[in-house]
Design a protein that fits this description.
The structure is a single chain. By secondary structure, the chain is an alpha+beta fold. The strands form 2 sheets. Strands 3, 4, 6, 7 and 8 form a 5-stranded antiparallel sheet that branches. The chain has a 3-stranded antiparallel sheet with strand order 1-2-5, with no helix packed on it. A hairpin with a 4-residue loop joins strand 6 and strand 7.
Length: 321
């Protein structure tokens, strides 16, 4: 199959290995060897390296997804405490000097810096309220929220939220490094696959049937399918994102591949396949990555043909309210 995505790397290499094996059988006792002594055994070793690099990216992507979910759950919980704290101060200390310093309630998707600022503000104000110096008449510290939930519990939760933001940033960086390593591993292999195609033409006699089955590296002109148009919305009743897309008049259509990415920017080579829909189906529902209020996920539908070619739809971001 031609190279159409990262997911096609290994199947394409496998096709070249199969073809190279047949070429060597024809040339026996000789074998086809490329520049710098690159032979079939070397390609097989390189395949293992590419597979390892792909697996490493997938593993780090999984860690990033897990970290995002953990952050979203912790963020949603502590956001409720911020609102509770604001209400408690206003109710128990009306008209006091503390009202001007109430922490702002950050949006669920606010940058980590805004969240940390709000949590720092809340801890500082809560500490000041508990000290209550000079005393506000009629208020007896400490301030304890319903639960009960005291400042010590908030301090522990705040530390956990801060660590969750840090973990997301760390897994982002690790994923970027793994992706760069993966690409650097595959690039020289791709160059050798191109070299192999020429080597077969130069190494076999004209008319040999193996010349007609040399694996392709790129799709033939006009074989890439059209993209469908997709929409996705949050369904509060099922607590899932409902996806729908347009049908295509495409005889070579095999299936629709449903893929997700944690964001913030879509990357085809990191999207995770979360489902397949076969014609005539045109809908799919998922809660992938939408673990808590404020969680978000990027979704897309890929048109996949019987020849393995594919085309991505538009990307839709779904946010759980």
């Amino acid at each position: 199959m031609p190279i159409t995505s990262v997911g096609s790397w290994l199947p394409t290499i496998d096709e070249f290995i199969t073809h190279w094996t047949a070429v060597n059988a024809f040339l026996n006792p000789s074998e086809l060897v490329l520049l710098d002594g690159y032979d079939l055994a070397t390609l097989q070793l390189d395949r293992a390296s590419v597979a390892g690099a792909l697996s490493d990216v997938q593993g780090k992507l999984n860690l990033r997804t897990i970290a995002s979910g953990d952050r979203d759950i912790k963020r949603a919980a502590i956001r409720g405490r911020i609102g509770q704290f604001r209400a408690a101060v206003q109710a128990q200390l009306p008209g006091s000097r503390y009202l001007a310093s109430l922490p702002k309630l950050p949006t669920r998707e606010a940058a980590p810096g805004k969240w940390r600022d709000a949590l720092d503000d809340m801890l500082n104000l809560w500490t000041a309220v508990n000290a209550n110096n000079p005393a506000v008449p009629g208020f007896t510290p400490p301030l304890v929220l319903g639960g009960p939930y005291a400042v010590a519990a908030f301090t522990t939760e705040k530390t956990a939220v801060d660590a969750a933001f840090t973990t997301v940033a760390t897994t982002d960086q690790n994923l970027q490094q793994a992706r760069e390593m993966r690409d650097s591993v595959f690039a020289p292999v791709y160059a050798k696959l191109k070299e192999y195609r020429l080597g077969v033409i130069g190494g076999l006699p004209p008319g040999n049937p193996l010349l007609d089955s040399i694996p392709r590296l790129t799709p033939p002109a006009g074989s890439t399918p059209p993209a469908t148009n997709m929409s996705a919305v949050w369904n509060p009743a099922t607590e899932e994102a409902d996806m729908t897309w347009e049908a295509l008049d495409l005889p070579s259509l095999d299936y629709w591949s449903i893929r997700a990415h944690p964001g913030p920017k879509w990357r085809n080579d990191e999207a995770e396949t979360i489902g397949q829909v076969f014609p005539p189906g045109l809908t799919f529902s998922t809660d992938h990555g939408l673990v808590a209020p404020g969680s978000s996920v990027l979704l897309a539908v890929f048109t996949v043909t019987t020849t393995g070619n594919e085309r991505r739809s538009n990307v839709v971001k779904v946010i759980r309210p």
